[in-house]
Amino acid sequence: MSIARLTLPGVLAAALLAPVVGASAQTRQELLLTTGWKFSKGDQPEAARPDFNDARWQQVRVPHDWAITGPFDGNNDLQTVRIEQNQEQKATQKAGRTGGLPFIGTGWYRRELNISGFGPGKRAVLLFDGAMSDAHVFVNGREVGAWPYGYNSFSVDITDALRPTGRNVLAVRLRNQPEASRWYPGAGLYRNVHLLLTQDVHIPVWGTYLTTPEISAGSATVKLRTKVQTPGNAFQPLRLETDIRDAAGKVITTVSTTLAAADGQQFEQQLVVPQPRLWSPETPVLYSAASRLYAGNTLKDEYVTSFGIRSFQFEANKGFSLNGQPRKFKGVCNHHDLGPLGAAINTAALRRQLTLLKDLGCDAIRTTHNMPAPELVQLADELGFMLIVESFDEWKKPKVKNGYSQYFDEWSEKDLVNMVHHYRNNPSVLMWSIGNEVPDQWAPGGVAIARRLQDIVHREDPTRPVTAGMDQFDAAVNNGFAALLDVPGFNYKPSRYPEARAKLPQGFMLGSETASTVSSRGVYKFPVELAKQKKYPDNQSSSYDLEACVWSQTPDEEFVQQDALSYLMGEFVWTGFDYLGEPTPYDEAWPSHSSYFGIFDLAGLPKDRYYLYRSRWNTASPTLHLLPHWTWPGREGQTTPVFCYTSYPAAELFVNGVSQGRQTKGPSDQPQTRYRLMWKDVKYAPGRLKVVAYDAQGKAMMEEEVRTAGQPHHLRLVADHPTLTADGQDLVYVTARVEDAQGTLCPDATNELQFTVSGQGQFRAVANGDATSLEPFQQPRMHAFHGQLVAIVQATQAGGAVQVKATTPGLPTAILRLQSAQATAH
Ligand code: GAL
């Protein structure tokens, strides 16, 4: 049975990781282990011992990425490889493939565990959201658990290794091998570590599974399965009381269930939500199920499961619908790194990414090519993004010498089970992906592996379909691989969708990876022409958005098919944000070490392509954008094409008041002409470039102007939001612009800016989006790239004023004042 052809019931919810609201210390304590860590690079097996002297180790805060401070070096993880996926004929040396950062090797973390009051009748569990990689966990010198895959979450019961009195010491050993990745993986305890202290009788990690099998306008049925653990499996008379609460915390309904011996260790509860408010990207309404577990009259545990109510369908020829409304995924693929912060997770950084994606009109994310951080999934629930949660980049047949294939046989089931248990309650998660471009697509036995993995996922969550990103079209379509997936996903095959429709049984498909157009923010190359694998001596790509890879396309080629084919369910653009590593088309050309694929650059600044996607995806607010910039000393009189990305159907361009004619989007053999307005013969003259956009009735609706910049005159600092939360973690992103006297961006400015942050904030990192820049992200100085860069300021734990100062020789000092405030208690 393929569940993709059935109506998929609405779902689900998240086991909350934050301290349980209202839970008293008598039931459970959920502690984030962020401070008190010591770290050392290099292997020291004796570091597992509690009496080991770590006085000289570095003090760090977790989440922590040991490699992001650099320095960059082309010899770090230097790989001599032939990338089959990229249709390469021979092996070449690739210096920046994994970002050129020093993440290879072994590292140790140590910390004391403060568990006062722990003793008989209590349980302790460590939950790692992700540890890069090959984690071995020791408590008081005893190995209590291990997990090789760096992207997955795992938990370890440490009860038996703890001492009720005296010191308890946690040590974690991590090891990253060379040639194990195709991008920058990060290094260390880069995601959160939680200590969960519970009673003997408790609900285990990810112990609930909530579904909403029936949804109508009048009511939604909520089915909640809750596991309990009782030490030694001794059965006790247990009772579970569950409230369903709305987003404001108001109790809607309550049920109380006693566990019969025949139920085993699992409660099954059913509740009804009248007039449910449905979850969607536009209305991300959440509910919660708050459960209290009693043994007799004693409260033993409290557990909150956050969930949303929504239904979706995948139907032959019709495609995708959410809550009965047909729609197509306006999606991006994103890697896990956060640019200058590296892999170290930070909720504020993720929130900024998602806020930028919202304005783009994006409504979906594929977590390429591995399990996301729980903070991302929770934010996707809250802000409204549909997720494809992906698991693997390779199965048995390797892409890289020391990749996941070495663990696949032993670990693939365990990894899938953890992934599904972790996120099967989250309404944002709509699909599970079992792999990306796995070479097993065409290897003998590959179809059987796909079936096994899909079956595991169905077993653990029958409510969501399984997909995979396929690049080997002929093999996968002809050998049964594509046919067995609930949802076939194709990477970079827009011209072959109709053929797949004819050959495959599902009747629908997904552009699981699309475009891979390359560009560098602020860079425009002449002549302006469509090109594949185009390289320039400066290691940059043109922002006219006409350059792609041999296997990939410009955005417009995908748009044509998305607009024509009803069974095509949308696209996931490669990528939303530039990421560390994979600097195609400069894979062999150090110092390139971060990608050129992003709609946003590595600093999170929009490239021109942002406006092309926005003009199509953001239906709530209009888009009108001109490119290139208009400061071209030396190009006077030369042909300098002007493109306009707009949500309006037509526009007229003026150079210094002289009309260059009106352009209208329309059917054409050339995909670009359908989605962009292009004046290809404009002769450059300094001054003003103006565009007036018209609606379908020919009414002038909006104007946009680009001016030639004069000399750099001042720095302008712009914060993405004015107030910080004084939690020691919150971030504000400050864009620094080099401007002329009129406030026009100086598009070629390369000034080196120096930052000083004072008051209740500290400098965290800086990035300029230049994939060739070897300047470290963690020093408070950097050169502007095409007139801009972004500095990241982090809150301290005290409220108060924060001052950000930027200086550069020859220009006045710029000062930005921000405010940091204590979070208001709810
Ligand atoms: C795809 C692959 C991605 C990335 C991309 C670049 O084939 O799935 O991980 O490598 O190409 O275009």
Automatic annotation (TrEMBL):
GO biological process: carbohydrate metabolic process
Keywords: Glycosidase, Hydrolase, Signal
Keyword Acetylation recorded: no
Domain called DUF4982: residue spans: 637-700
Glycoside hydrolase family domain segment(s): 715-814
Residues spanning the signal sequence: 1-25
Residue ranges annotated for the Glycoside hydrolase family 2 immunoglobulin-like beta-sandwich domain, each copy included: 209-310
Domain Glycoside hydrolase family 2 catalytic: 317-532
Glycosyl hydrolases family 2 sugar binding domain mapped to chain residues: 37-196
GO molecular function, one term: hydrolase activity, hydrolyzing O-glycosyl compounds
SUPFAM superfamilies linked: (Trans)glycosidases (SSF51445), beta-Galactosidase/glucuronidase domain (SSF49303), Galactose-binding domain-like (SSF49785), Invasin/intimin cell-adhesion fragments (SSF49373)
Family per record: Belongs to the glycosyl hydrolase 2 family.
Protein name: DUF4982 domain-containing protein
Organism: Hymenobacter metallilatus
Upper taxonomic lineage: Bacteria, Pseudomonadati, Bacteroidota, Cytophagia, Cytophagales
